[in-house]
Amino acid sequence: MTQANFDEMLLGPDQVRDPYKVYSEWFHSEDLKQLRRKSQDAEAFFRRIGITFNVYGQAEADERLIPFDIVPRIIAAREWARLERGIEQRVRAVNAFLHDIYHRQEILRAGRIPAEIIAGNEAFLPEMIGVNPPGGVYTHIVGVDLVRTGPDEFFVLEDNVRTPSGVSYMLENRETMLQMFPELFTQLNVRPVSAYPQKLRKSLCDTAPEGSPNSKPVLAVLTPGIHNSAYFEHAFLADQMGAELVESADLQVVDGRIAMRTTQGYQPIDVLYRRVDDEYLDPLTFNPDSLLGVPGIMDVYRAGNITLANAPGTGIADDKALYSYMPEIIEFYTGEQAILKNVPTWRCSEPEALSHVLANLKDLVVKEVHGSGGYGMLVGPAASKRELADFEKKLRAKPANYIAQPTLALSTVPILAKEGLAPRHVDLRPFVLVSPNRIDITPGGLTRVALKKGSLVVNSSQGGGTKDTWVLGD
Amino acid sequence: MMLGKTAGGLFWMFRYLERAENTARLLEAGWHMALTRSANGESEWRSIVTTAGMNVAYEERHDEYTSQNVINFLLRDKANPSSVISTIQAARSNARLVRTALSSEVWEATNECWMTLKEALARPITARNLHDILASIRFRTSVVRGALHGTMLRNDIFSFARLGTFIERADNTARILDVKYYVLLPSAAFVGTSVDNAQWEVILRSVSAERSFRWLHAGETSPLGIAEFLILDARMPRSLAFCCGQIGEHLAQLEKEYALRHDSQAQAGRICDRISSCTINSIFQDGLHEFLGEMIRDITCLSGTIEKDFRFYG
């Protein structure tokens, strides 16, 4: 399988793909030692500005860096244009689906997806039924996870429509590359990503509720606090947008609005970009033990007096049980075929699919329907006989709990390794902003790379790193 | 518009930075004294810990006041919340909390200060490297201050940062004087002996004022002169008069910016009036120790009022 991998830079030993031609020439004229030194400089730079993530349950010593690789991932204008169309189509369909599923549920009436998938799903919030989010937007921010297997073969792995993270790395990676290799940016027409925070601000404020006492929309970012693993990103985005960074203790309901405690009293907030999960958002409505949310915020929301981004209840659209129905969902709401493919998925709830999965377990990836972050997952080709046997038992006991997918031959992009350039597997998370009349996709995104040779796991907790992603202009 | 939490974070960030710097100064003075062997080591190290207000915690951990123990306790003991490592850590935590209110220069200087000192203080301090470490603490905290002055808007953010600095500094100067007030008293037993000369030197050194004092007083050192310099001389940036003047100015700035007068402004006004109505003779007449005790209490009280007025916590 490894021979069949598509490398995004090299077709053969001396055959460089078009988007990488200029870079390849530049690279081979550079001194390897010098490049390695630059790579170390980059690490020191990240530490100094504090782009770190916290590891849960560990002391201050454990603010870790996500390793950064200095070889960019380069995407041609034509390739990007197609991705952009596909992502936009998908995000549009997701928002239409969310509106429908929390209102008339036409898609269930039409029998295009089974009703029990929604009814028994924890990600479906009955509190959202009949609620109209300000501006009609459910998913203000989306981070679609894509993988690639060939020149034109992109697959959507996950839609990430709850609270996608990682955009600060997209921005800081670019900042770092601009500082280290300014000459490359003069030779190549790399589309900028730096406007993201301003666009985010505008797009959020465009969904501000009506009837606010503020003359201009007041925006705040809600973080669980400085111990959260993504605190850096929360502070970074608030800073870049010129918004307040608030925690639960700063907020309360005042005169039917969410207000923050300032040095001069309580100030109403119009738009809250919350980086707190649905479950913790309101102890009066959801988890009563939550200290991260605001008691009563759901009432304020339902009364239309605050915008929450993303809206509560969007998780139903990126639930794994629903994922396999995305092609139908896209067709139902847009009348078009899906431009971006889904990874073929067997729903183990269906007897035929189950027997196929059981017969081919060693070649498949099996995931829990409601799991996330790679927990409770079986990677067939990497599993021992024992693990396969154990998993088979679980599958037979509760088939509806699982879906299965083939292991994809993920594309590779070179990293700077000891011996020079060496191919490693990557994925891609572009960031999408949705406002009432526009969908904006930042050209680029977060490329995650499995730094270990042969590894397919790009998660930062398991040896993954990041790269800057360059989308070339025409 | 600023969150109450942010105001509190800024205030404490700069209080902690100031405290780290003051501890470094205290140790510098103590070390100098130990080197010149001009006083009883044990009692000198004890009074340094007293000035830092940490006797109880110290005595829980150590039996004797030795240079090695005191230095390590005040610089790198994480169980001591006033040690330099603890205060720098606290300053940086507060900086993370208020990061959106800081310029990137101030944040990076604070983060680098923490990274450098964390590494420098990871191993026990010896006579050999003490000087370098104290210099590094002074240098790193100065870079943060420099970034603050050079890159921050002069608005409420700046005012809260400065209020934290001057509240801490005023408290520190008052404590240094109070711990040593007896060597400044015109009691016959000490006058003219080398002991009190060395003690006066320690006081001046612990506020980095030995040179400026000599320069202003043509080399003539007297206890009255030192007390006057550190309490009433508004040219001296660590004197009570200077610190309280700055506190008053920044509170007045906030009053103007928010168009609202609070209790803290009235309280600061009373402290300033008190200082300007005193002469050094009247202070000695009414009791130096009593005066300093009241100052310390008033400053602590003012700090609490600021916290309430500007809604740091609720």
UniProtKB/TrEMBL annotation, chain A:
<feature type="domain" description="Circularly permuted ATP-grasp type 2">
    <location>
        <begin position="72"/>
        <end position="450"/>
    </location>
</feature>
<protein>
    <recommendedName>
        <fullName>Circularly permuted ATP-grasp type 2 domain-containing protein</fullName>
    </recommendedName>
</protein>
<dbReference type="InterPro" id="IPR051680">
    <property type="entry name" value="ATP-dep_Glu-Cys_Ligase-2"/>
</dbReference>
<dbReference type="InterPro" id="IPR025841">
    <property type="entry name" value="CP_ATPgrasp_2"/>
</dbReference>
<dbReference type="InterPro" id="IPR016450">
    <property type="entry name" value="UCP005522"/>
</dbReference>
<dbReference type="Pfam" id="PF14403">
    <property type="entry name" value="CP_ATPgrasp_2"/>
</dbReference>
